[in-house]
Design a protein that fits this description.
The complex is a heterodimer of chains A (about 240) and B (about 260). With about 240 residues, chain A is of the alpha+beta class. Chain A has a single domain (about 15-235), classed as 2-Layer Sandwich (Ribosomal Protein S5, domain 2). Chain A is about 25% helix and about 30% strand. Chain A is built from four helices and eleven strands. The model of chain A has no long low-confidence stretch (mean pLDDT about 95). Chain B is α+β, with helices and mostly antiparallel strands and about 260 residues long. Chain B folds into three domains: about 50-90, OB fold (Dihydrolipoamide Acetyltransferase, E2P), CATH 2.40.50; about 105-180, Nucleic acid-binding proteins (OB fold (Dihydrolipoamide Acetyltransferase, E2P), Beta Barrel); about 185-260, K Homology domain, type 1 (Ribosomal Protein S8, Chain: A, domain 1). The radius of gyration of chain B is 21 Å and the shape is flat. Classes of the chains: A alpha+beta (about 240), B alpha+beta (about 260). At the A-B interface, strand 3, strand 4, strand 5, strand 7 and helix 4 of A face helix 1 of B.
Chain lengths: ~240, ~260
């Protein structure tokens, strides 16, 4: 993030991969990809691929973690060793632990955890290929997996990344833009309620830039929400 | 570009399948698309969590929906059920959560002094008190309760009480409740049980007759089967679970049952 370099990220109004400033990468979404899970989904944004699997509600062990009045949500975000160019050592590191936590906080408000006292809902997010914006891709997959699993939710959660590269505000950062841009921001929200559940920012923005970037983020999230709704409706349409 | 799980392993008709087969066979997709074009009223679309269903207008809200002000939204991915008295959503899939009055099939997990613990195929263990399990007086000082129900016994029982913190009590004091001897149990998605039973019991009767098996279904997704052709019965049931949304399922099952 914020390496000084000679790389030009925007040339003639187009980004390195030919996209417009507010254009998302090619998106692919599928549900029910992990048979044994209660619910699962795969989401791909360009070259970033995340698979999420949801289990539960199920009995929670260790017992001391049980909440008598409410269920709990556990999220594990993990990057596969082959997901990046330089092999990532397997197992949780500090970054994965943080992302697991923010992903949980982004999704938790959507779930009716009070419907399952003493139980747990476990969500596993595996990043199979990383090219920027892995946490938001993971959250999008997790939200679909939870709906697929039949969890009661207030709304789906849609997430996306936005940022400032070469002084311009853009949506859906790829790996290059994330590493060499000036600012990146990750947002997650409950789109139909217009409620924000995650906001993280790294970099520098003026207040005006922030307001514009936030607007771009919410618009992009709403586009992603439409795609999430479409994949669920198309997959489970019945005659 | 990673080639992601293009083919779903359709051989693994495991009981923990979360719902409809995905991706569907291309021929089924084509058939559905054709019917959808001719008769748009027949295609049912699911509602999604957070999707607006209807205005409340004084109606009762089922446990599949939630209210914000006067507006009712769906809690689940499922099908809405709306009439003049109630608004509810039936989820497509999900784990069984015990509710009072449910008739379930349970498995005894432990024998205690004054009752038994029962596995209900849910995150919650149920308790069967002695007074609800046995009619006659039992002297707990001298009797080992495994005389009546032992570990791994299968019982058909009724959920008599579920508290807010999901402490569950079951009872054998019900006209259908009994210990089930022999046989095996399989577990399917609880929301598919009505499909296994069929309209007026037609589907399950067909399976019972063709396989000459005793079959009892529980609302918790557990099905007990006893008989020589139980494998055939199990195959039929798992097929219904997996393909419950497809056209011509009834005919397919009938064909399956009449063949070897």
């Amino acid at each position: 993030m914020g390496h000084k370099s000679d790389i030009k990220l925007i040339v003639d109004g187009k980004r390195t991969d030919g996209r417009e400033l507010d254009q998302l990468r090619e998106v692919e979404m599928k549900v029910d990809v992990v048979n044994r899970a209660n619910g699962s989904a795969m989401v791909r944004f360009g070259n970033t691929v995340a698979v999420a699997a949801a289990y539960g509600p199920r009995e929670l062990f260790p017992k001391f973690m049980q909440e008598p009045q409410s269920g709990i949500l556990r999220v594990r975000y993990n990057m596969a060793p082959f997901s990046v160019d330089d092999r990532k050592s397997p197992g949780p590191d500090r970054r994965s632990t943080e992302i697991s936590k923010v992903a949980r906080l982004a999704i938790e408000p959507s779930l009716f955890l009070e419907d399952f006292p003493k139980a747990t809902i476990d969500v596993f997010i595996e990043i199979l290929q990383a090219d920027g914006s892995t946490r938001v891709t993971g959250i999008n997959a997790a939200s679909l997996a939870l709906a697929d699993a039949g969890m009661p939710m207030r709304d789906l959660v849609a997430a996306c990344s936005v940022g400032k590269i070469d002084g311009q505000l853009v949506a859906d950062l790829n790996g290059l833009e994330d590493n060499f841009g000036e600012t990146d921001m990750a947002i997650a929200m409950q789109p139909s309620k217009n409620k924000l559940t995650l906001m993280q920012m790294d970099g520098v923005l003026t207040k005006t830039e922030f307001d514009r970037l936030f607007k771009l983020a919410t618009e992009s999230c709403k586009k992603i929400y439409e795609m999430q709704k479409k994949v669920l409706k198309e997959t489970y349409k019945r005659v | 570009m990673i080639n992601m799980m293009q083919e779903k392993d359709s051989d693994s008709a495991s009981a923990s399948d979360s719902g409809s087969a995905n991706p569907r066979e291309p021929s089924i997709e084509k058939e559905i698309a054709e019917v959808a074009k001719e008769h748009p009223e027949v295609v049912r679309e699911v509602v999604l969590p957070g999707e607006f269903i209807a205005d409340k207008r004084g109606r009762k809200i089922g446990h599949g929906a939630y209210v914000e002000g006067e507006k009712v939204f769906s809690k689940y991915l499922g099908f809405p059920r709306i009439d003049e008295f109630e608004i509810n959503v039936m989820p497509l899939s999900g784990v069984y959560i015990p509710q009072t009055g449910d008739r379930i099939i349970g498995v005894i997990t432990s024998v205690e002094i004054s009752g038994w613990f029962v596995d209900t195929n849910s995150p919650y263990l149920a308790f069967l008190p002695l007074s609800e399990g046995v009619e006659d007086f039992v002297d707990t000082q001298r009797t080992d309760l495994s005389r009546f129900f032992d570990v791994d016994d299968i019982i058909s029982c009724k959920v008599s009480r579920v508290t807010k913190s999901k402490t569950v009590q079951v009872t054998m004091n019900d006209f259908i409740a009994k210990k089930l001897y022999g046989g095996v149990i399989i577990k399917i998605t609880p929301t598919k049980i009505p499909r296994i039973i069929g309209k007026g019991g037609s589907m399950i009767q067909a399976i019972k007759q063709a396989t000459k098996c005793d079959i009892i279904t529980g609302q918790n997704g557990v099905i007990w089967i006893r008989g020589d052709s139980k494998t055939k019965a199990i195959e039929a049931i798992l097929t219904i679970e997996k393909e419950s949304h497809t056209l011509g399922l009834t005919e397919k099952i009938q064909k399956m049952l009449s063949e070897g």
